[in-house]
Each structure stands twice: as C-alpha cells, then as structure tokens.
Amino acid sequence: xxxxxxxxxxxxxxxxxxxxxxxxxxxxxxxxxxxxxxxxxxxxxxxxxxxxxxxxxxxxxxxxxxxxxxxxxxxxxxxxxxxxxxxxxxxxxxxxxxxxxxxxxxxxxxxxxxxxxxxxxxxxxxxxxxxxxxxxxxxxxxxxxxxxxxxxxxxxxxxxxxxxxxxxxxxxxxxxxxxxxxxxxxxxxxxxxxxxxxxxxxxxxxxxxxxxxxxxxxxxxxxxxxxxxxxxxxxxxxxxxxxxxxxxxxxxxxxxxxxxxxxxxxxxxxxxxxxxxxxxxxxxxxxxxxxxxxxxxxxxxxxxxxxxxxxxxxxxxxxxxxxxxxxxxxxxxxxxxxxxxxxxxxxxxxxxxxxxxxxxxxxxxxxxxxxxxxxxxxxxxxxxxxxxxxxxxxxxxxxxxxxxxxxxxxxxxxxxxxxxxxxxxxxxxxxxxxxxxxxxxxxxxxxxxxxxxxxxxxxxxxxxxxxxxxxxxxxxxxxxxxxxxxxxxxxxxxxxxxxxxxxxxxxxxxxxxxxxxxxxxxxxxxxxxxxxxxxxxxxxxxxxxxxxxxxxxxxxxxxxxxxxxxxxxxxxxxxxxxxxxxxxxxxxxxxxxxxxxxxxxxxxxxxxx
Length: 609
What we know:
The protein is α+β, with helices and mostly antiparallel strands. It folds into 3 domains: 8-204, Aldehyde ferredoxin oxidoreductase, N-terminal domain (Aldehyde Ferredoxin Oxidoreductase,  A, domain 1); 233-418, Aldehyde Ferredoxin Oxidoreductase Protein, subunit A, domain 2 (Orthogonal Bundle), CATH 1.10.569.10; 426-490 and 509-605, Aldehyde Ferredoxin Oxidoreductase Protein, subunit A, domain 3, CATH 1.10.599.10. The chain has 26 helices and 17 strands. α1 (26-32) packs across α2, α11 (309-315) runs parallel beside α13 and α19 packs across α24.
C-alpha cells in the first residue's frame, strides 16, 4: 500500500459486538482514492444484492480519503454511505467533523458497520481498540444533548457523529449529525444508523498519518491557506458565506418558492444574507477551515441556529416564510432532531400544495404558516400522526399514496435541493444525473449556466455538467476535502494533485484524476442498476412540474423545460459518458475504466451494449 493510505478497514459487526481489521487491495486506493470512491467499491464488493436498506445486512460506512486531516484548507471531512432507505439505490453524504480527523489518526480509511445491535449502542474507537457501550440513556435525546453527554463521558478532544430522534424513528431522510449543525447523508444515512440501534460513534486517534513527503504537504498546504485569505471574494464570504446566494438566486430567478412553483420570492429580503448579518452572533466551521461557512443567528426562540443557503431557501422561500428568525427555529429543530433540512422543506412544501388541492383528507396548510410548519416538522421527525408518518417516507412515497406526483419535486426519490430549474436546463440535468438522486453537490452548474447561454440544451452544457461532476462529485468527495475554497474564493485546483502526489508518492495529473472520477460514477450507476434490478432513462428525468407548469413571475415568467430538448441534452450526456441510450454504461466503457467485474451482473439484469 502506498503512503497516504492505511490500507485498512475497520469491520464492525453490531449483532455480534465484534470488530476486526480488514486489509483491502492497494488497487482500491489507487483506483478510487477514498471517501465516496472507496465506499462505492466496498458496497459493490460486500453488500448482498437486494438487501433491505433498513435491515441488519445493510452496510453503514464512514470513509475518509488521502487528503482528509492533512494541513490544507477544509480537509476535515468524511463521507457516510449506505444503500439508501429513501431511494433504494446508492446513498451518501459528507460531514465536516473532528471525527474524520480522529479516524485518520486512528489508522482507518473506512469503518464499516454491519448487523444490528439488540439495544441502543455507542461504538467507541480508540486507535485499534473498539468498545460497545450502552446508549439506553441517550436514546430519544436530540443531537445537541447527545453530543454534550458524550463529551462529558469521553472528553472534549474526541470526534463524534450521532443521530437524533428522526434517525431512531427511521425517517427516510434522517441524517448523521455532528457538532451542533454539521449534517450529512441526505438519502437516509441517519435512518440506517437508527435501524442498527447505533446512536453514536466516538473516535479518538493518536497516530501519525503516513505521508510520502510530509514537508511538501505542509508547504503546499500553507501556501493554499494564504491564497484563500488573499482571495478577492474572501472578505464578503466571511460576512455572508453561502447566504449571499439568496440575493443571487432571486436575481437569477432560481430561488425555490412555493414548492418550486416560482423562481422569485417577494419576501426574499427578510431571509437574505444582509438580514442574516443583522442577526449574526457567531460563526462555525469544519476542522482545518479558514473560510468558515456556518453563520449562527439568534432565532425567534432566542436560541442559536446555524444557517446556510440551502436550509434557508428550503425552509424559507419554498414555504413562503419571510422571517429569518422563524426559519432559524425550523432549521435548529431539524438539526436537533437529525433530519435533512432540504428534504423536510420539500415534503412540507409538497404537503402545502397538496392540501390546497384537497389531497390530504381535511388537512389545510397555508404558505408561510410558521406555527403549522414547526408542528409538522416535529410530527415528521417523531413519525407522529398520519401526516407526519406519511411525510417521513419522503415526497415520492407520499405522492404515490395521496396523488400530486406532478408537483413532487424529486429525482430517484431524493428531494431536489434549493435551485429552481424551470429556466435552467443544465442544472436540471445535473440534478437528474447526480449519483445519489437530486443534489447540487455533484455539479453546481447553475452559476456558469446563468452567466452563459442559460436556455441552451447544448452538448457543451452536457460536457460542463460532466466536468463538474468529475471535480466535485468524483474527486472532492473522494479526496475527502471541501470544495468551497475552490468554488467560492477561487483557490487553484492545481493544489490538489500536487498535495495528493506529495502525500502518497503517486503521480497524479488531471487526466488520471478524471479517469478515477469517471470510474466512480460508472460504478455507482452499476450499484443503482443492481439494487433496483433494472434501469430506465426515466430515472434521469427532472421533476414533472418543471416541464408542465411554467413560471408566472419574475424576469423569466412563462419559462419551463422543453421535454424533447431535454431528452436530447440527456442523449449528449450519455454519449459523452460512454453510456447507452438507457443510461447504462457500455461494455467498452466498463472495460476502459477497469470495471469489468460488474459486467456479468449488469448483463444478467439489463443486458449490455
């Protein structure tokens, strides 16, 4: 195994309360790097096909990468992955947490949980030592209180990830939480932990991360830190972070409003970055970050709430709520319950529209009704009442039960994050082809699209989506490091192959890295095909509302997606990826990427071209 990786997985069987190290092939490190790539390779190799996502045989994976925990900007990230209970396919997310740094120092590239404990459990990892601790006293507690008690028990200098009541109650979009606001795993990674009775993982590592050239890593990392702070955009970023996007999205007519019915919101100034600055009391960030993005306000209940663009848009404009302090309460409750703010904002938006159309058996919800949304968010997190239980299953399931699927805003079962795409076909493609279902992290193409030919359905646009998927969804998710220094303040991408090569002693150029990213995307598509036992290009289609119901307000009133043109755009995407007209990787592509081991399985299920 080259330097830069430990070459070891920690395999934990919760049913048997057993833990053992598992060495993995060096080719996995070289071909998939770590994080998302390593998690996908583990899932393909070890997950029994057709496994119930909430059954004991599902794997819950925490994975870091060769850049995690190194002295470079924003390297304190880990990926959490599993078969998703929300979508039935591959699911993951990343969390900024000290647990990622401690995991690297403890000597593990990934921790894999299988089985299910017979009662609530905390797993404690201290270097090579693993213990299973009773968590009966923690079960039912919110994420803040859980972490507070665990720090009292194990010390402040540990890394902790945990779930809240939403994960315990198997809400299909429950997340993994850390540090009172760090959240990851939108496709239900928290529910997978809950199904295993795994309340929390505590990690303490004391080893030195093995590096090929530690001096060069430190030198390049130090220069990168300086470049971040010297960036022209740095000062304004430190004022508003991602909250600056509210004004941009309003101007561009992509701000999700009234369940993605419009792209502009009359009350946007009540929830924007300038309003946040007036209320700001603190900032929080992930380990090793010098451009922290977590802006904390005092919410309407006089408690701290850590805000960013996605949760404010989905719990604000998408619900017709124009009071940032009230949005802050909804966001804080979601974080404490351990539920995804994007998905819960989407299901409550769908429920409001469904109630207006008489689909919810006498339930009446009105846009902007803060008290009703607060109660409903709690109902969902606790699976309380018929509507709470219904919405806990996700918008795709809810609309199948009640109708209203034409305005259920999701792809592959995962609710769309906070960009309306009536007038943004490239971003619609990015959502539709994201590797976990509709999410912006894989390819935030919308700023480039708005600045160029936004209404084009061109091959160039499909190529741009793939380029960004390679960098953001393929590489940053596998390094594992945060993409925001590059995205938001323009840190040069060239730092990453230089630091990777210094850390590992393996020479990486962009052609080689893009090949890694393409391999990861094709493997994840193979996992989807295997777990769904089939595939159709309909799986790569955006929500119906964007085709059927045009915008009525703003500079692009009347805009909607064109079905035929979108299909041509999707054809371009498949062609450039080397996938067939169904969205299935071709034999030639699989072999070129070194994925011949998936051929037989895919041939049996869908046939290969």
